[in-house]
Amino acid sequence: MRACDESFPGIRDESKPVGAVGWTRLPNGALDICRLMVHPVAHRRGIATVLLDATDSIKPAELTIVSTGTANLPALALYRRRGFAPVGERQVAPGVTITELERKNTSTTQPIHNS
């Protein structure tokens, strides 16, 4: 995590990390959520929602993008609840696809610049 160009706020439970979200700002101003991780012992406790809320607060954007495995139904449901809509799929390995999602937020003042 230290070697990449992403920002990583996280959540600790007692003394150990239980979740983190990584993002980067794209040249066009969009926020790319590169990864959202929650330790299995902390699933179904709202940690992913808290991390996404924090990201929205810290890095507001007119456009936020994210992708997840097409078979990852809990993640897809989470992103849909958060206002993301599927915009495409791509195959990353035989039989494995990724669903790409985006959310437009017109209440921010972050400009989107096309590159």
What proportion of the residues is helical, as a percent range? 10-25%
Largest beta sheet: strand ordering: 1-2-3-4-6-5
**How many domains make up the coordinates?**
1
Number of strands: 6
Structural class computed from helices and strand pairing: alpha+beta
Query: Which spans of ≥5 residues are poorly predicted at pLDDT below 50?
Result: 108-115
CATH architecture: 3-Layer(aba) Sandwich
Major beta sheet summary: 6 strands, mixed
Distance between the termini: 27 Å
Mean pLDDT: 84
Strand content: 35-45%
CATH class equals Alpha Beta
From the 3D structure, determine the CATH topology. Aminopeptidase
Q: What is the H level of CATH, i.e. the homologous superfamily?
A: Gcn5-related N-acetyltransferase (GNAT)
Described by the principal axes of the CA atoms, the overall outline is: globular
Radius of gyration of CA atoms, rounded to a whole number: 14 Å
Element string (H = helix, E = strand): EEEHEHEE
Number of helices: 2
